[in-house]
Amino acid sequence: MTVRYQTKVESVSFGRLGKLLLRWRGSVYKLMYREFCIFAVLYAIIAAVYRMALNPTQRTAFEKICIYVEENLNSVPLTFVLGFYVSFILSRWWEQLIAYPWPDRMCYLITHWINGKDERSYMYRRQLARYISAATIFVNRPYSVLTRKRFPSLQHMVDAGILSKEEKVLFDDIIEIKEHGKFWVPCVWFMRILDQARQEGLMHDPVGVGSKQILDELLVFRASLGRNWMFNWVTIPVSYTQIITIATYTYFVGCLFARQSLDVTKNYKGHGVDTYFPIFTILQVRPRPLYIVPYSS
């Protein structure tokens, strides 16, 4: 999940921007500090060995290796590939948020057309709302960490009042096709209960306008459920994620040698200043692609 920070930096004053840059929760520092520490330690070890443990002949050989790696490091098109990958991830991430099945409009229609104040009308309204909530939970559970923690099993949904014990038994008896799931089952129950409410005269809908509005909204809701399920079913190709990961880590392994500060007395190109730490290389460190799913923890 994203971290809301707009209220903390509603203006662009220097003090508020500084406060934003120092924020830890959800920050790039939190994503990168492990990689940063590993890179810094390995870089320092290699630099110490080069400066203190190698003899002149070995140092010359090491310098040739560093120059060779530096000359060929840019052959890895990291900026282009990683930029395309991040753009794709963010587009997919935003589309999942846009496609989220909100239950509000459905509940508005249910309350409008089944508006009785008797216990029977209240039971139907609550039951229809339960089915909408259950369908949303069934779609989110496979890829939402927060939903799985809240409802790790059907029994937890029964304990929360989302399903009844009888509905849990019916749901368990339905054979699940892994690629399609069973999130559509509460929608079928919804239509059956809606028809019962109309037959009992609890819907003030003599010509069927209310039933049509609710069913049309149910189809829109079901389409959003299916779209969210598709995002989980058809994922980003694992080979592409592997390529990005391999390219990124290969690049920074090469930087451990290519960014070493070599002997300034030998006048190597680009090594006129003896620096002990590659500051600008550290600024190139990329955060890990954690937000493939917008509903992660």
Quickly list its features.
297 residues; mainly alpha; 64% helix; 0% strand
Q: How much strand?
A: under 5%
How many strands, what sense, and barrel or not for the largest sheet? none
Write down the overall geometry: elongated
Total of helices: 13
Estimate the helix proportion, in percent: 55-70%
**Topology, number of strands:** 0
In whole angstroms, how far apart are the ends? 6 Å
| Average residue-wise pLDDT | 82
Give a quick summary of the entry.
With 297 residues, the chain is an all-alpha fold.
Description of the molecule:
The chain has about 300 residues and is mainly alpha-helical. It is about 65% helix and about 0% strand. It contains 13 helices and no strands. The mean pLDDT is about 80.
Helix and strand topology:
Elements: H1 14-21, H2 28-53, H3 56-73, H4 78-98, H5 104-113, H6 119-140, H7 145-150, H8 154-159, H9 165-173, H10 185-199, H11 209-233, H12 238-258, H13 279-282
